[in-house]
Design brief:
Layout: H1 9-15, H2 22-35, H3 44-52, H4 57-61, H5 67-82, H6 87-116
Helix pairs in contact: 3-6
Length: 117
């Protein structure tokens, strides 16, 4: 499908060097839009924002993926069992793994702080 858009000049300047990645940019943007308003965190950026806000140990322990994010993870897991993941899927999977690692570390530290309190 061919699509013609009018966008502000400053956005066009940002997109020009990424022109070959526009389908991926749109896909990721749509995924985030679809996930907005879901319970828990809606995407990876939300997890990082929460962790950066210096949440309480209780908030960290309560952190769970939104259903939309969990569905994305489950889908990638399924795909990886059936076939070799594409480069894009593999990169997405590595992002999920890294964020999960950060969340686990945060939860370990939060549990330690709760035990000390």
């Amino acid at each position: 499908m061919q699509l013609t858009l009018q966008i502000p000049d400053d956005l066009a300047a940002e997109l020009r060097p990424r022109e070959g990645r526009l389908p991926r940019i749109l896909r990721l943007g749509l995924r985030e839009l679809d996930a907005q308003g879901a319970a828990g965190f809606t995407g990876l950026a939300d997890v990082l924002e929460l962790l950066a806000s210096l949440p309480t140990p209780e908030q960290i322990m309560a952190l769970r993926p939104s259903q939309a994010l969990q569905d994305q993870i489950d889908h990638l897991l399924e795909q990886s069992r059936e076939r070799v993941l594409s480069d894009e899927e593999e990169q997405q999977w590595r992002h999920y793994q890294y964020i999960e690692h950060l969340v686990r570390k945060s939860k370990i530290r939060a549990a330690q702080r709760l035990r000390q309190a």
